[in-house]
């Protein structure tokens, strides 16, 4: 006689299925970790290429907010008011910044495009910054980094009145007399000994200690950083000039100093290049 196998009970089938599932769980978890996902912008006043603003996510600077609303409308509040006019054009919308300097609003499910800022630039690293002047500008591509990853009268008046962002220096602005940019544990100081020093990170510095008196650091309208002395002699510069425009130096969350520009898109309807404008920021004065 042939041996007959005992019938498998439903309980044994369930136990076998559970065992197989437990065996596969580590592989499933690893696969999910390996799926590339855009990072969410966690910085208060800027976002970089590849980052997103989720539904109800925002950039903020003082009392000004740039919000990806739940109704799919992208709105700049309390500054120079602007919106994308996409209210109720989708649900659970997300804003992303591409490596061509383009804003895109798309559905979080399905990825359908709702709106774009349209103008595409060359491929590179970009930064969208909510400025203290109450507008959002997209700057790029990056033209310098401390650690590779990589009407005219009205314009002058605007720049002179521009308040400082704690982590950003804009074209035409100065740092001197121990003034600094700060982002979390990182600080970039234009020291009174003429040395520009980044602390809290990899220790980058301009290596210009003692090379001049009453030195200051300035970002010009060609994306170049200069350390100059009181005779306006150049003590140090970040290198080759780029095209004429508006630039920004950001002290980022990763501890890098990066210059982005020129502006390739702005919430300001007609952008005026601020050529020749001056704004100064000083540290606290020490008593003798």
Automatic annotation (TrEMBL):
Gene3D superfamilies assigned: Bulb-type lectin domain
Record bears the keyword Signal: yes
PROSITE patterns named in the record: BULB_LECTIN
Ranges of residues in domain Bulb-type lectin: 44-151, 166-272
Domain of life: Eukaryota
Gene Ontology MF term list: D-mannose binding
Alphabetized UniProt keyword annotations: Hemagglutinin, Lectin, Mannose-binding, Repeat, Signal
Biological processes annotated in GO: response to other organism
UniProt signal peptide: 1-41
InterPro entries assigned to the protein according to its UniProt record, in alphabetical order: Bulb-type_lectin_dom, Bulb-type_lectin_dom_sf
Name of protein: Mannose-specific lectin 1
Organism: Anthurium amnicola
